[in-house]
Structure formats: C-alpha cells, structure tokens
Amino acid sequence: MQERQQQGVGVWVLIIGMLATGTSNTLLTKLQDRQCVKDCDTDKPQLYEEPVWQTLIMFIGEVLCLFVYMIQSWSEKRNRRPSLSSSLLDKPAVGEIQKMQGWANLYMWIPTLCDICGTTLMNVGLVFLAPSIFQMLRGAVVIFTGVAAVLVLGQRHKAYRWTSLVLVAIGIGIVGASPVLFPATAPAGHEHTDRHADLAFYGLIMVLCAQFCAAGQFVAEEMIMHKYSIPALKAVGLEGLFGLITTLVAIPLLHVTLGQHDPHSPFNMYRGFHNTVDNPAVLYTGIGCIFSIAFFNFFGLSITKCVSSTSRSTIDTCRTMFIWLISLGLGWERFRLLQVVGFAVLIYGTFIFNDVIAPPKLSIFAGSPLHTTNATQTNGLGMSQASEVPTTVSEGAYGTLGGGAKSKKDADV
Fold this sequence. Notes:
single chain; mainly alpha
C-alpha cells in the first residue's frame, strides 16, 4: 500500500514537472521574441527575431538527454543491473527488430532534418502570434500525420478517426481565424496598421507548414523504429546531437549565401550571435529554454512509461491552457470567444482521434473501440488507457497538442 502511494506521488511529481517545463518552453521563447536588442529608445525598436539561433538552443537542450542516457548506461554496466529510471525510460521494443548501434544511429539524422525545418518555421510563426494561438495551431499535426500514415505507411483509419480529423481541421480553422478577424495590438516592434492581420496570417501559415514538417519527422521515425530498437532517451539525444551539428554547419553557410551583405538579415551570423549573447535577458531566457527542453522531454518520456501515452497527451492539453492563462495575465494577448470555441472543437476532435473519450454513437463515428468495450482501463489517475496515442520521439521546444506517428519502440515516444 505504501509503495503504491509512493508511486502515485512520483507520478504527480512527473505531471507537475511536465506542465511546468512545457509551459515555460513556449513562454520563454515568446519572452525572447519580445526583448529589444537595438534602438530601444526610438519609436521603432529592433526586437530579438532569430529563429535559427532559437532552433540551435532547442537542440542544445535535447543533447543534454544524450548525456543523461550515457550516465545511465555507464551506471548499468557498473552495477550490472538496470537502474530504475533506465528501466522506465529505455524499455526495449518488443518484436524481432535490430538494436540501433554503430552506423545505424545515423538514420536518426533523417527525422532530425525535418525537425530543423519544422522548429525554425515555428519560431518564425511565434514572432507574429500569441503564445496560446501558436500552441493550439500545433494541433494540426494530427491531421498531417493521420493522412501521411495512410499515404506513406499504408495504415488504415476507421470512420471515427477520419471524422475526428475533420473536427480538428474545423477547430484549427476557427482558432486561426481568431487573430486575423479580431487582431489585437501589433507585435512589439512592428507598426500598428492594417498589416497586423497580414502578419498574423503569415505566422499562421508558418506554424501550419511546420506541422507538415513535423508529420514528416514522425513518419520517418516510425519507419526507422519498425526496423531498429532504440531507447527513447537515446533517440532524443541523437536527434539533438545531429540537429546541433547540422545547425552549426548551416549558420555560416546561410551567412555567406544570404546574410553577409545585409546586417539586418536573420541569416547574418554576427548579428544573430551578438543579439543572443550580448543581451542578458535574451541569454538568460535561452539558458532557461535549454534546461526546460531537457527536463520536459525527460518528464514526458517518464509519464509515457509510468502511466500511458494517452495520459501524456491529455496532460499536454492542460499545458496549452496554462500557456493561455499566463499569456492573458501578462497582457500578451486578449480574450477572444472565437478562440475558445475553436480550441474546444480542436480538443474534442483530438481526444476522439486518440481514443481518450467516446464519440457519439453515430455512423460517422463508427469503429471507435470505446463503443465496443464495456469498460476501459485506467491508470490510477482516472485517465483512459484505451489505446496508445501516437506522438513523437521528442517534444522539442514546444511539445504537441495531440500526436504524431506511433513509433515502434514504445508506441509513443
């Protein structure tokens, strides 16, 4: 009995940790975007808008997970028995698949390239969007991944999943229309004109394009996991390492080809470096992002192993609510009823897709496993474990609202 209580307390610690670090990821990045780096006393201050360097920061955070994995592996070999955290996080995949080692580790570079594109586009979109709208729009990854799973992986969805994807699309459309139809004040550092709606639409397109890249990342991960077994923490660390190497190579190349003749270009290497390092507020928030990303991945992977991936996606939805409430409290955005309606539709569709809640008993929702079972298993927190939610290997800087592609190694991470 006492052991179960201790496990329950441990799970709640993981949940609180995931909510705290996940919320801080988005808010710290947005706080960076709001920092003035030049001409701060003028009518047109220059703000920190360095999406490539923010992507670099994200990968540094993920690399820390690789160090944790190496320490765990060393500890296991020394003690000749798996540690508790390692047994929770690095449970090998079932089935006859090869262990990823040696040159095979380089396969993780493929989803990493998709992650680089997606994260950079999201960082651009966040500049022009409120944090809560940005986070809600990321739920579109369910649509792209659901379709990609059919076209690329040959999976088949039942009627209720297709209907839920339509609901998600409707919710995304409503949420996306909110900042365009009812624009708030212009982003700091930008003129308050009719162009604000255009900037919001531009940010919306960037975030949605990023979800297309994220879907490519998830599908690539699943294809790799069908052949290889890799511990979750190692997978996150490898993507961070490969992403860090790729970004460090790309920064000088982008500088030479696009940024060296324009000191105001976001691809100007010297501009990005000095804007990141010379401004204390930007530097400290960047360090905060690094550790919050690392711990967010650790907490998320731990919840998946200790509870279920369904619970993880449900908890992640609460994180979106925290981001929204804090943004409202800080005055970064204003309350929009249309956004509330869109978010409700988006959440409802996502939960049906992930088998968290039972859909109505209508023909368009046919095939739901929650219609054919008398009861579903719960995890001790009252959350359904009817099925595994497809999400990604790593949650990067922001996490997801609802999912990605189910990977072979643990059906979630």
